[in-house]
Specification:
CATH class: Alpha Beta
Distance between the termini: 17 Å
Largest sheet: 8 strands, mixed
Bound molecules: cobalt (II) ion
Structural class: alpha+beta
Mean pLDDT: 96
CATH superfamily: 2,3-Dihydroxybiphenyl 1,2-Dioxygenase, domain 1
Oligomer: single chain
Order of helices and strands: EHEEEHEHEEE
Number of strands: 8
CATH architecture: Roll
Number of domains: 1
Strand order of the largest sheet: 2-3-4-1-5-8-7-6
Number of helices: 3
Length: 133
């Protein structure tokens, strides 16, 4: 089995502070990590749940993929991050199974991880991020 854990579930939100506040009030949750990823045009707040995270994600600019998603679909589930031991090997395996890579090669993600995204078309309508810690 290539997948070792659900790394994170990413939720696209309009207002990161409001989203954090909601999770704090609803679940007594606290943010363990915050990061702006300039390359992706996102700011994310991670809430730890056991060995996984809920990743609240907002756009930092209008041309970011999250801004486009929010304009088209509104707030909601954006992608699932699957934790793997070897991102390159997992990417190769997915492509061999018929999936379409968004990232041809693994690249740096947040928290110092190595990541690659897989297109929802060819992956059961789900945007998948492969995450190697
Ligand atoms: Co992610």
């Amino acid at each position: 089995m290539i997948l070792t854990e659900i790394d994170h579930v990413a939720i696209a939100v309009h207002d990161l502070e409001q989203a954090i506040s909601f999770y704090q009030r609803a679940f007594d949750a606290s943010v363990v990590h915050r990061e702006v990823v300039e390359g992706d045009g996102v700011e994310e707040a991670l809430i730890k749940v056991a060995d996984s995270y809920v990743q609240l994600t907002a756009a930092t600019r209008e041309d970011s993929p999250i801004a486009k998603f929010l304009a088209k679909r509104g707030e909601g589930l954006h992608h699932v991050g699957y934790r793997v031991d070897d991102c390159a090997a997992a990417l190769e395996s997915m492509v061999a199974a018929g999936a379409v890579a968004i990232d041809a090669e693994p690249r740096p993600g947040s928290r110092g991880t190595t990541v690659a995204f897989i297109h929802p078309k060819g992956a059961l309508g789900t945007l998948i991020e492969l995450v190697q810690e």
